[in-house]
Amino acid sequence: MNQEELTQEKVDGILYQYQMYQQEVEAISQRLNITEMSLGEIERAIEVTDRMNNVEKGDEILIPIGAESFVHGVLAKPDTVIIGVGSGVCIAKTTEEAKEELIKRKQEIVGVIEQLKANLSQITAELKKTKQVLAQIQQQQNVAT
User: Coiled-coil regions in this chain (predicted)?
Assistant: First the structure.
C-alpha cells in the first residue's frame, strides 16, 4: 500500500467521522427539542396544580383537549388530580401529591436537558475540530495540484 492510498484512507475515515458527528448533533438536537417540550408541559401542569387551591367544587373550567382547543366543564373534585405514571396507567392523587410528583419529574427532565446540552457541546466541538482537519487536508491537496 503506497502513501497516497494510506492518505486517502485517512481522509475517508475523517470524512466518515465528520458525517457521524453531524448525525449525532442532529439526533441530540431533536431529542433536546422534544425534552424541552416535555418540560414545558410539566411546567404548565405544575402551574395548574398551583391554581387548584383557588377553585371549588362546581366551578366552571376550560378543559384542554389538544391543539389549543378547550371544552367547558364543571369541576367535580378540585382536590384530586389524575396523573400518568407510565404505560398508559393513571392514578388519582391529591393536588399536593401530584404537584410534588410533577416537580420531581421536572427536576429529572432538567437534568436530562443539561446532559443533552453538555453532550451537544462536546460533539459540536469535535465536529468543529474535524471540519478544521478536513479544511487543512483540502488546502494541502489544492497546493499539491
Answer: 99-140
Angle of helix 3-51 relative to helix 95-144, nearest 10 degrees? 160
Residue-by-residue DSSP string for 48-117: HHHHGGG--TT-EEEEEEETTEEEEEE-S-TTEEEEEEETTEEEEEEHHHHHHHHHHHHHHHHHHHHHHH
Tell me which architecture the domain covering 40-140 has in CATH.
Orthogonal Bundle (1.10)
| Per-residue pLDDT at 3 exceeds 60 | no
Going from N- to C-terminal start, the domains of the chain cover 40-140
Rounded to two decimals, what is the model's pTM?
Answer: 0.80
